[in-house]
């Protein structure tokens, strides 16, 4: 679980730009107090992050958190990169999309896939 959160935070940091360059345009942080949550934000530079966690098998030995989300940013090359992910009992499963400009470098694919 801690690894999952660490991977999500790495994605956020990788998608962010230097402070002061972008303004926060929306923010959402909702928790139901029982493990389910929804979090997201968008910035004036095109960066977007959305994540939703759902508690599965609540109160049972197999209780776990399933997380779905996506983050996107506009790279220095002007291309919008989007990572859509699921993190659950089957591990972290990213899908990477890239706007016009070429293929996603294999080093990025390997680093996200673990």
UniProtKB/TrEMBL annotation:
Xref: InterPro entries: CHIT_BIND_RR_consensus, Cuticle_Struct_Prot, Insect_cuticle
Listed GO CC annotations: chitin-based extracellular matrix
Signal peptide: 1-15
A Pfam family hit: Chitin_bind_4
Keywords from the UniProt entry: Cuticle, Signal
GO molecular function ontology, one term from the record: structural constituent of chitin-based larval cuticle
Source taxon at top rank: Eukaryota
Protein name: Endocuticle structural protein SgAbd-6-like
The gene coding this protein: LOC114244815
